[in-house]
Amino acid sequence: MTPLRVAVLISGNGSNLQALIDAAADGTLGGDICVVVSNRAEAFGLERARQAGIPAHVIEHRAFADRVAFDRALLDLLQGYAPELVALAGFMRVLGSEFVARYAGRILNVHPSLLPAFPGLDTHERALHARVEEHGASIHFVTEALDAGPVIVQGKVTVSDGDTAETLAERVHGVEHRIYPAAVAWYAQQRLVCRDGRAWFDGSPLEEPKIL
Ligand code: GAR
Question: Is 111 a catalytic residue?
Answer without folding.
Answer: yes
